[in-house]
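ZP: hey, is the magnesium ion complex queued? I don't see it on the tracker
AM: it wasn't, my bad. submitting now with these inputs:
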Amino acid sequence: MSDAQTAFEIIRSVTRTMIESRETQPALDAVVQLISEKMGAEVCSIYLHEAGTDQLRMASTYGLNADALSNVHLKSDEGLTGAVFSDGDVVNIAHPRQDARFKFFPGLGEDRLNNFLGVPIPPGTARGNGVLILQGTEPAPFNRTVHDLAYTLAAQLGTLLENRKLKSSPLLESSGGMSRAVPPPPKEAPPFLRAQMAMGGIADGTVLVLKTHQVWEDLLFSESEDAEKELVLFKEAVQLARKETRWLRQRAGELFAEMDARIFDTHELFLMDESYVGLIENHVREKMTAAFAVKLATRELTQSFQKSGNAKLADRAADLRDVALRLLNALGEVQGHYHPEPESDTGVIVAAAELLPSDLVYLQSRKVLGILCETGGLTSHAAILARSLDIPCFIGIPGLTQFLPSGTHVILDGHSGLIYIRPEAPVIREYQRLLASFQARSDIQPPDQDRTLDGHPVQLSGNVSLLSDLQLMKRFGIKSVGLYRSEFFFMIRSSFPDEETQFGVYRQVMERCGAFGVTFRLLDVGGDKPLKYFDWGKEENPSLGWRSIRMLLERPDILKPHMRALLRASQLGQMRLLFPMIATLRDLRELKEHLKVAAAELEAEHGVVFRLPPMGIMIEIPSTVLQIEGFLFESDFICLGTNDLIQYLFAIDRSNERVASYHQPYHPALLQALKHVADAAQKAGKPVTVCGEMASDPKAVALLLGLGLTSLSIAPGAADDVREALAKLSYLKCQSLARRALQLSTAEEVRKEVDLFWPT
Ligand code: PEP
Ligand code: MG
């Protein structure tokens, strides 16, 4: 592996190990082994501070005599380790035993070691959580690359250990079946943050806070001198704001095809609405300045929306704030404040309480490197913008704009889910190195046909959620769409798109990728993918409930226009139709029947033949694995949805963090299921594609190939890593790896086997 890839891999693996392990001790044991092996240091140890006794305890070591571990305690300022802990500074020296501070523990096995690197956890913090130590036989200090990577890992460990403390604290609240930590927002910027990631990638830059809220706070009451003159000014501002709104509508339609650009029609309606405009005018007549009148009327109206108890109206509050800002802008009140001006050459990391619909349009054309948002989910405006710009995005960080002022240097690491605030020099160096090699790697031209080292062909296609993902796919050299998740288009809107709107979007996908093949998945909403404008009714277990095709089959008013739009687009190129959440053959048969009826209707209306696209099912519910032969007989192809298959195989809600440790893609039970499906598909001569996250994990790819699964639909951003892995893999060796893995009994054993298999 390249240096940068090794570094990424270590950072990712340490994070994954800490998150996946239920207990801290096995997690630490795995982490020290991983760091030692991957970084080529003979010894890696972690000391943790015990507040009660004010001692440092060697919590885990790899390379030293573990039997002597229980004796290794130090006062918090004792030895080299104590010095690192109490001073908060890195110690990187040769010949540690000659150092006056060194404390010798008989039987531990340090006699042969000639260098010592100790990094406080987290770095730069005196008396933090503990110390990360690397030791080796070289009689020289560790080089800068190792130093910087160890520093970054110690930062990571600091956050992960804090996270663990938080998880085991009573702060864990239960909310609708999901456990959620609810720490109060920090008042001052912590050195690191872990937050929900809406889009991956790495960014290094300075923060620019969008002062949407600040604008309101800064706007104080002021009296106008001439109410009539102020009224004229306000009327002009309304006309300007309407003009801008129409421009926004047009740009939004061009930039974000799936977005409901009609949202801006609603904005224009606000600008024509007597109850809003009239209210402002009344305030102006009471001798307020127009700007303050806008603030007051907007506040009055949004409060009444929120009090109404009507979710749709409450949602409108953000739109009204957006409109009001446009009015203020027109009034010249916020010029140069609200939108980032002047343009920064190097780009900025935008931080905001919320991103408004117009921010999508304004920020699209600016140099934005990353996005941080206090609110929002995976389909929020922030997430949509990040996808379309292909930049990292973190959401759900309460108080962000308070403790992270504009100009703060941050590094966003979408690989490990960490945000470094005012990072120190070694972390900056480490990420600049990673960024440079990352950018250089993206320029590699992909081959026409992907192959393993020994020439076995592998089919790579892309998982796509929005049209903007197609750009990303192209950049990473992927031509066909292996999974188009149609639900995202529905989720980012405020109402169901009609047949024509759907066709408009599907047509664009076909025009761009139809020559290479597109697998469209039928609307897979519900469970972890709700639609805010659709009333699902209350369900105890939404993941096991009325979701996806179960809902569609009972709602022909939704299913029919959806199928018609897809059928119309399918005539434009190579399309396959994929049915999600299939549990029984009856599901499949009913859907096929609906499709035939829709095609017959279209034929009658258009007077041309509508050929049916190949139809396949997602294998994600265990019943389909057990009855695979029957499903293969009645399908043209199948796709393995490992995300849901894991969820339903191990009976875990995939959005519930409490049971995240059961999400085990390396578990032999899952591998048995995959093998059963792969063998049956091969026997039936039907194509099978893996489209769950597992296919994007370069390490798991060896297992999948070994099981005979050579068509992978991956996250486009994972293409470089997967290709790099393929170039090192022998198909024959993958087969024997899979055979060995199938004999094992736990996910940990399989992971070890896979780790051993991979050349470092
Ligand atoms: C899956 O379940 O593996 C899958 C690809 O679908 P989604 O993640 O969209 O449910
Ligand atoms: Mg699924």
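AM: back. The radius of gyration is 29 Å.
ZP: great, adding it to the tracker
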